[in-house]
Write a structure and sequence with these properties.
With 101 residues, the protein is mainly alpha-helical. It has a domain of 60 residues. 31% of the residues lie in helices and 4% in strands. Keywords: ATP-binding, Ligase, Nucleotide-binding, Protein biosynthesis, Transferase. GO terms for molecular function: asparaginyl-tRNA synthase (glutamine-hydrolyzing) activity; ATP binding; glutaminyl-tRNA synthase (glutamine-hydrolyzing) activity; transferase activity.
Length: 101
């Protein structure tokens, strides 16, 4: 399936890319070459092949729950023991955005 200059013009407009006539012709040829390189993949696309949407398949949420581990949690006073400065149970660091104390 070859892309026409109208197709490329619509893609460029969607991507808010300004193309003059020469660039439009070059981009049309370039995109058609790119699509042509993908043609061999179609040889593997048979009626009995399910589309793959993720390389791992039925991936589910693999992240741990967002809960404190009581066995590994560090008490606040121990965590702040070597801090250069702390206030109200928090590390106190110099402001990097300005406007701070």
């Amino acid at each position: 399936m070859a892309l026409t200059e109208d197709d490329v013009r619509a893609i460029a407009a969607y991507a808010t890319i300004a193309l003059d006539d020469a660039e439009l012709a070059d981009m049309t040829a370039y995109l058609n070459d790119a699509v042509g390189m993908l043609e061999p993949i179609l040889a593997y696309a048979g009626e009995d092949v399910e589309p793959t949407f993720h390389p791992i398949g039925d991936l589910s949420n693999v992240m741990r729950s967002d809960a404190a581990d009581a066995d590994r949690a560090l008490p606040t006073d121990v965590a702040l023991a070597n801090a250069a400065s702390s206030r109200e149970g928090q590390f106190r660091v110099p402001s990097i955005l300005g406007g701070g104390e």
